[in-house]
Amino acid sequence: MLAGNRDDFTMLITRYSDPLYRHALCMTGSPDVAEDILQLSFIKAYQHLAEVRGRFDAWVFRIVANGCKDWLKNIRRSHLSYDEDDQPSGFATPEEELDRTELRSDLDMALSSLPASLREAFVMKHVEGRSYEEMADLLGTTVGALKMRVHRAREALQALLEEKYA
Amino acid sequence: MFHDLHSDGPGDGHKRERSEQSERPLADREVPLGPPRSSIAEAVHAWLDGEATESQARRSESGRDVDFWKRLDEDLAVRRRLRTPSHLHAQIMNALPMHAPTLITPWWRREFVVTPSSAIVVATTLVVMAAAATALVLRLPH
C-alpha cells in the first residue's frame, strides 16, 4: 500500500472519504469547497504515503482538518448552503421539508459564526459522532479542553437559535 | 455576541458580566430581571454527551433545552448521513499522479534482512579474506 499502488489507494478513498467529506462540508458550509479540500488532501496523502507513521485515517484527517482551517483563515464567508439532491429525504410532507430547510439554513449560519476551534469540536462530536478520547487523539489536545469547546459551542448555538426553535 | 468565545478561560466574559450586573446598585424604578439565561444545565450536557438519560436531563427545568436539542438533532442527523458525492472518487483518482514519489532511504538506514544464502556468501567471503591475510603474513620476510 505504501508503495503508492493506485488501486489500493482507491480502497482508502472509498473507506475514509465519507466522514472526511462530512467534516469538510460542516466546517466550510460549501460543497464545492469541501470537494476541493478533500481532493487536495487525498492527493497530498498519496504523494506522501511513504511518510505515514501510525494510522492512515488519523493522518489524513489531520490533512483535511488543516485544509479546512486554512480555508477559514483566508475566507470570511457570509453564508453558503449545500445541496442535498443526492441524499435520501426522510420527511413526508412539503411543510416538513420546508421546516428542515429553514432549520438547516439557520444552523449553518449559527455554525459559521462560531470560532473555528469550537465549530470543529462541535462537528466532530455531533456530526461525526466521535468520542472525546478519539477527538483528543486526532487533534492532539486533552479531553477536558475538548469538552469545554463542545460545551461552549452548544451554549453559543442555543443562544443564537433557541428563540426560534425552543 | 461571541467575542468572549475567543477567551481562554471558560465563560470568563459571562461571569464578569454577571458579577458586574449583580454588584451594580439598581436605579429607581428599575426592575431586576434576574440572571441572564445563557447556560445549559450540566445534566443536559451530560445527556448530549451520552452520559445521562433524557429523563435525568429533563429534571430541574431543563425540559425546554432538551426539546431544543432534539429539534436540532433532526438536522444533525441529516448531516450524519451525508455521503461523498459519487463523482468525487473518480475525480480524485484522475487527479492523482501516475506514480507516488518514493522516499529515498540511505543504505545505512535501510532494513537489513539475513537470508541463508546471503549468510553463506558472507561467511565464505570472510573465510577467504582471513585465509588470504594469513597467507600474506606467513610469506612476509621475518
Description:
The complex is a heterodimer of chains A (166) and B (142). Chain A is mainly alpha-helical and 166 residues long. Helix content of chain A is 73%, strand content 0%. Chain A has helices at residues 6-28, 31-47, 56-74, 94-112, 116-127, 132-139, 143-165. In chain A, α2 (31-47) packs across α3 and α5 (116-127) crosses α7. The longest helix of chain A has 23 residues, at 6-28. The termini of chain A are far apart. Chain B is mainly alpha-helical and 142 residues long. Chain B is built from six helices and no strands. Chain B has helices at residues 12-23, 42-48, 54-58, 63-80, 86-95, 116-139. Chains A and B meet through α1, α2, α4, α5 and α7 of A and α4 and α5 of B.
How large a portion of the residues of chain A is in β-strands, by DSSP E? Answer: under 5%
Largest sheet of chain B: none
Mean pLDDT of chain B: 75
Q: What Rg of chain A, in angstroms, do the CA atoms define?
A: 17 Å
Give the helix/strand class of chain A.
mainly alpha
In whole angstroms, the N-to-C terminal distance of chain B is 98 Å
- As a whole number of angstroms, the C-alpha radius of gyration of chain B is 38 Å
Structure class of chain B: mainly alpha
**Biggest beta sheet attributes of chain A:** none
Q: How many β-strands of chain A, per DSSP?
A: 0
How many H/I helices of chain A? 7
Order of helix and strand elements from N to C terminus of chain B: HHHHHH
Helical coverage of chain A, percent range: over 70%
Order of helices and strands of chain A: HHHHHHH
- Overall spatial form of chain B: elongated
Mass-distribution shape of chain A: globular
Number of helices of chain B: 6
Q: How many extended strands of chain B? A: 0
